[in-house]
Design brief:
412 residues, alpha/beta, Rossmann fold, CBS-domain, 3 domains, 18 helices, 17 strands, binds adenosine-5'-triphosphate, binds magnesium ion
């Protein structure tokens, strides 16, 4: 279910935005709009749906409109045109009082530079949102203390922000956002000011908290590795426009344009993509009860030297064409006695691990899921293509049988 939905949002900054809306709709460039009118095109025709309980990452270069977009979700910024709905509430229809309550209860923000109050201790910083909501002191301190513990800051509750490291200050910011029990967290470059190790720890902590809390989190970052680690989905903005939106795999496997491609350049693809991405779903699979004549006929027609054999949905093993022909000569009732065992890799194994397996053996590898069910046969050329898209042309020509549904048995 969509928790936040924006439709056809336009944002033009400047004294008379409505006057330039039509030009923006007709596609005037940012530069031309600025030169001819002094107005800045913040966002153009953004539609986005953010699922309840997901982490939705928003990426893009500086100035691409990320902060502008998420500030629309709680109407810190008013759109020039377009609709915003949160939980089926039309945010644009809220009056002043309603909007205030909506902001206090529905959403909380975590900022890049922590935004802590320097003269309040940790506990009072964390309790701030509750104080605004009118929760009485004892109760808000009890609740704030709970979140101080949750982010691993027990013992520091009476310290002041300047006595804490950056990572600790960001934990305070996170605890403060969580303390109000808001269902939605808006995190604008929340971890960007932290050094890499601490940043990773914070990512882990967020994922850990999220697995229990199931919030809807909108997370802005410049960092693709962070986006891929955290995001259930990723939206990529370019100069105020949405250029691509999808799962991390969607984006890695099919970047929409050069801008997205440039983001992907340095990413460690072999950690994000796994064996399931690199297998050919078998168009042809035999079962233990298949008759030898049928097996021989199928493999001959598809020009395969081997094919996997299933028992129900599970992998039973692999049969070579020679073995099937032998079974046929011997008059066997089915092929079950002629099946050899087949090596497997788990579907969720990262391609770095898969590559290791590929290099240590020339045997075909079956990909199986957590229930030991057959997913497909690993395609060596797909592994190479996914890890290094540029090398894929060479790999393809090495392996002509690869597109037919299973790989050829290279050792045979
Ligand atoms: N209040 C404002 N008045 C005029 N222009 C603005 C205003 N706020 C943002 N802009 C412009 O809108 C564009 C998008 O800004 P925004 O802050 O959303 O970018 P961003 O993607 O968050 O960038 P960064 O990664 O640097 O934080 C920029 O060109 C900026 O100059
Ligand atoms: Mg920003």
């Amino acid at each position: 279910m969509a928790k936040i939905e924006v439709e056809n949002i336009y944002k033009i900054f400047g004294p008379r935005p409505q006057r330039w809306l039509q030009a923006a709709r007709e596609g005037i460039s940012r530069e031309d709009l600025l030169a001819s009118s002094g107005h800045t095109l913040g966002l153009r025709d953004i539609s986005l749906s953010i699922e309840e309980g997901s982490i939705h990452v928003i990426m893009g270069l500086s100035g691409s409109g990320k902060s502008t977009l998420i500030r629309h979700f709680n109407r810190l910024i008013e759109p020039t045109a377009g609709r915003i709905r949160v939980d089926d509430v039309d945010v644009m229809s809220l009056g002043v009082r309603e909007l205030e309550r909506f902001r206090q209860q529905k959403m909380s923000m975590v900022f890049q530079r922590f935004g802590l109050f320097p003269h309040r201790c940790v506990l009072d910083n964390v309790a701030y949102g509750l104080q605004i909501q009118g929760v009485e002191r004892k109760e808000r301190e009890r609740r704030a203390m709970h979140w101080v513990e949750q982010v691993g800051l027990s013992g520091y509750e009476k310290q002041f922000p300047h006595q804490l490291s950056g990572g600790m200050q960001q934990r305070v910011g996170l605890a403060r956002a969580l303390a109000t029990d808001a269902e939605i967290l808006l995190m604008d470059e929340a971890f960007s000011a932290l050094d890499p190790l601490i940043r990773r720890e914070m990512q882990d902590q967020l994922l850990q908290l999220q697995s229990r809390l199931n919030k809807t989190i909108v997370f802005i970052t410049h960092d693709l590795d962070e986006a891929l680690r955290l995001g259930n989905r990723i939206a990529i903005l370019k100069a105020g426009e949405l250029v691509q939106e999808g799962t991390p795999e969607d984006i890695l496997l099919a970047p929409a344009d050069d801008y997205v491609q440039a983001f992907l350049q340095d990413v460690n693809r072999s950690k994000v993509l796994n064996a399931a991405h690199a297998c050919n779903a078998a168009t042809l699979s035999l079962t233990t009860r298949s008759q030898p004549a049928h097996a021989v006929e199928l493999m001959a027609r598809k020009n395969l030297r081997f094919t996997p054999v299933l028992d129900g949905k599970r992998l039973f093993g692999v049969i070579t064409r020679q073995a099937a022909e032998r079974a046929l000569r011997e008059g066997a009732r089915d092929i079950s006695q002629h099946v050899e065992s087949m090596a497997t890799v788990p579907a969720n194994a990262g391609l770095d691990e898969v590559l290791g397996r590929m290099l240590s053996s020339t045997e075909p590898l079956a990909v199986t899921d957590e229930n030991n069910e057959f997913v497909g046969v690993l395609s060596r050329s797909k592994v190479v293509e996914l890890i290094r898209p540029a090398l894929s042309a060479e790999a393809d020509s090495d392996e002509p049988g690869d597109s037919s549904g299973t790989t050829q048995r290279s050792a045979a």
